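Changelog excerpt

This revision adds worked examples to the README so contributors can see how folded entries look when concatenated. The first example is reproduced verbatim below.
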Amino acid sequence: MTCRSGSAPIPAPVPVPAAPRWAVRAAHAVALLTLPTGIWRLLLAAGFTAGYTEAGYAAAGLPGWGRAYALGVTLGSELLALLALGLVRPWGVVLPAWIPRLGGRRLPARAVAAAAGVTAVLLACAWTPFALWWALPHPDMTPHGALVVGLLYLPLVAWGPLLGALALSYRRRTSAYGRPAGLSGGPGVPRSG
């Protein structure tokens, strides 16, 4: 129990249980899903046509501002994918102590789960069409390039569903835990099942 000066003791929060093994594996898979496309975009930014025809490469704007766009999308995708690890790690429940002014604070579980859920839906909408990649013509790419790019982007189809499952697991783990035990009928006591 912890006490504030001059006040009644405040019960300590019940710790959140560890993430299930499947969720830890799924979070690591999400963190790796963006690597193939990230490497491909880095090749584009470095000046390689990487499957595009010369005309397709130029039309994509890659000799100019397209390079900055490719780098930005790669960096943003990698960071977003790495945030999935927070759904299975302690820093996704309580901010690390080394963060100035915020370290040690508990994150609002509902907000974290909602943000992850909304992101999962957006990612599913964005990447699911890549499952149909080979059904569409790609005149700006070489035949071999279109095959390789399709294979590189195909793992991203799983990003939304995996993140959605992680968000549900996170919400379930954190919803019954972390509130002071013994208040109003026993919040803080884990749900059964």
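The second example, added in the same revision:
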Amino acid sequence: MMRRSQIGLLSRLLLLLLVVELTPPAIPVPMRSSPQSLALLRARDQCGRELTAAQRLQLDRMQFEDAAHVRHYLHCFWSRLQLWLDETGFQAQRIVQSFGGERRLNVEQALPAINGCNAKTSSRGSGAQTVVDWCFRAFVCVLATPVGEWYKRHMSDVINGNA
């Protein structure tokens, strides 16, 4: 026969097992993305629907070759975010605001870089360049500035779920 102390111990063990069994496993809570990051991801997904897996991977790695699919993707991406207007190019002030303003970017460096690339790559008078080409050339120009380095880091964080 079992002693009372053994019965008490056995009942506590059974109770502990029930608690452990009934407790749902801890589910890691993903980091909440900012509305701006979600907008970037949505634009990326919507504009990348026509891309092959290899093309998508290339863009995710921030490799922007001069190819039709890259030019169209970039124009779609920036236009969808309403940060590119076909009449005036990149909306420098809106880009700075959308990407965190003075907290995240050196505004004194960003605004002249973006506006300078708009002006430098615009050849609206020649007619030979489409707005898609202009967007691509202006974007490549911005990538060559410190703003471009920040953009690459930020987009990598967004794609990897860290922003």
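Reviewer comment on example two: The beta strands are 84-85, 89-90. DSSP finds eight helices and two strands in the chain.
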